[in-house]
Amino acid sequence: MSTTWTLTAQDAITDALQIVGVIGAGQTAAADDYTVCMNALQNIIKELPIHDLSWPKITAAPVALAWSAGTPAQVAMPADYFGVPVVSYTVDNANIDLLVIPKVDYDAIQQPDYVAARPQKIYIAANGAGYLWPVPATNPGLSITYQAIGIDAALGAMPDVAQTWLGLLGLWIANDVSIKFGVNLGDRQDIERRFLARRGLALAYATESAPISFGVCG
In the prediction, which pLDDT does 59 show? Predict the structure, then answer.
């Protein structure tokens, strides 16, 4: 019994173009039409987490965070970082998690420049900079697990989504591009209705599997 069926980005785009009536079965669309749909697909992949349709694509192993004595209070997040951070360091073979705090809590710290052997808290800004407190005196050896951003789609490859969501992509693309292709209101509403129903099924099984971290406020 096979479980390896996949759908490429080109297959999903072809499905979308057939749904919106640009091409029929066996026909090939113009390059510009593929470009419009590919742009929509790229946006969908990047926006999956805000639809609660993240894998959740949590990194399988901790990733080291580079620390510099020149900027000891800051570390940069990995290039594909999206969210769900668990930042930790190891002492005597035990992992110690930092408390991830929001900006309001970081701004409320009375001595933001206080130096200690290792940090206890981290605020991660929207630009990917992580602000440590206390400021570590030496390299604390931090690592992070996190939810990664989806990989850009390529026409001949399977999009970076769970296999069970592949059948949804054609409808999702079609829903996003239907106005651009001049689909009439009634058909747009039908496409949207079918898309929302399929997305609802996907959401029902999009279980959260991110690691859970506890910290103590100091």
Answer: 85
Banded model confidence at residue 2, pLDDT cuts 50, 70, 90 = confident
Under 8 Å between Cβ of 179 and 188: yes
Which residue ranges make up each domain of the chain?
A: 9-55+150-204, 63-148
CA atoms of 218 and 216, how far apart (whole Å): 6
**Residue 12 Cα distances to 39, 54, 147, 159, 180, angstroms:** 13, 19, 25, 9, 17
Q: How far, in Å, are 40, 59, 106, 193, 200 from residue 143 at the CA level?
A: 34, 11, 20, 44, 35
55's tokens: 């894998």
Predicted model pTM: 0.77
Q: Does a cis peptide bond (omega within 30 degrees of 0) precede residue 134?
A: yes
Range name among 33-42, 84-93, 97-106, 114-123 with the lowest pLDDT average: 84-93
Compute the Cα dihedral for 13, 14, 15, 20 and give only its sign. positive
Please state, in angstroms and rounded to a whole number, the distance separating the CA atoms of residues 133 and 119: 5
pLDDT above 60 for 203: yes
